[in-house]
What does this fold into?
Amino acid sequence: MEPQKNITGLVRQKTYFSILQLLNSIISNNKYADMPISKLFKSEDFSSSEKAAVFELTYGILRHRARIDHIIENASSAVISSLELNTLNTLRICTYQALFKDVKATGVINNAVALSAKNPNFSGFIKRTIEGILRNKENVIFPDRDKTPIDYISTYHSHPLWIVEKWAIELEGTGGPAKYIGRDMRTAHAGLSITESDWQVGVNNLTATFNKFNVPQQETDDMLAIVSGLKSVIVEI
It folds into this structure.
């Protein structure tokens, strides 16, 4: 198969296999991404454009995972939690390309076929799902922004639900327009097995969002302080 061309150069198919294995390892073991990526670069001879692809796809998928998973669920009959991790991460890689990269539809589909070649029981499902995503990516139905703003923000912007719920509580408490009527934080997250790693990913995503929109440092620090007060009732492992 011909390598795909992106803004920075050519990316060989083996790079996408490496990204798939990398995501499987990071997610299944609740790892941070930096050390596994560093280890991968020491063991594989990647070009600069391939290293850029590894960084973007790995961190991009982790950052936008809730939005990507919502789109996958809406394009298939499968429930995300029921999918085997290798199948799910194959879909995530190709969905990310379809949403955020300047890759032709044929290139995305070819990548889906190649990544699923060793998984013949699901290769047809993966290909059909990606084709559906490509057809309907501009018409995905997300939670209603006005009727269920907490669910919308959590899903579309891929922020942990507990953070968005906390925002609503704090905004209401400081005179903002939002009114939170959900469960308390301990009850809402009981049994979810949220780990220290999960918590840190959420905090990192929150900080990155503040930086992206140039939120002043004082407001950023204030919000992070509010969020940190919830850690003891949310993190279970």
